[in-house]
Amino acid sequence: MSKALGVYVHWPYCARICPYCDFNVYKNRAIDAAAWKKALTKDLSHWARRTGQGKLTSLYFGGGTPSRAPVEIIGHVIETCEFLWGFEQGAEITLEANPTDTEQLHFKEIANAGVNRLSLGVQSLRDEALAFLGRDHDADAARRAIECAQETFARMTFDLIYARPRQTIEDWRAELTEALAFGAGHLSLYQLMIEPATAFARAVDKGRWAPLDDDRSADLFDATQELTAQAGLPAYEISNHARPGDQSRHNLVYWTYGDYVGVGPGAHGRLSANGARIATETLARPEDYLTAAAANAPMHVEAPLSATEANIERFSMGLRLIDGMALQPDDCFFEQGGAREKLRRLVEDGFLIWNGELLKASGNGRRLLNRVLYELLG
Question: Which of 225, 254, 283 is the last residue of a domain?
Answer without folding.
Answer: 254
